[in-house]
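ingest -> validate -> predict -> emit
validate: passed (alphabet ok, no gaps, 105 aa)
predict: started
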Amino acid sequence: MIRVVPYMIGSTAVLGVEVKLPKTTLLAITTDTGYIMCGALDVGLLNERLKDRGIIAGRAVGVRTLEELMEAPLESVTVQAETIGIRIGMKGRDALERMLEHAGS
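emit:
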């Protein structure tokens, strides 16, 4: 089952996506600039093999719902996310706010 949920960050809508798979659930919340995701996200892959894409993303582990993803501290972030002030330990919601501040940059 796939569930898509809009969330408001300030006055801007972001999109939450939940994909129920056997024995796991993939969670992601995206902006036009970047995204945060559950532990399935491979930040190392984004930083190394896909570094030319400049992907802004963060990973939170141990989350089971989109709401938890918003409030959880990020366990890892891409190099490109760091360039706009997103840091390890930052709450997912705060990272999304940073992404929105840098939309179109």
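Residues 2-101 form a domain with the Hypothetical protein Ta1206 fold fold (CATH 3.30.1980.10).
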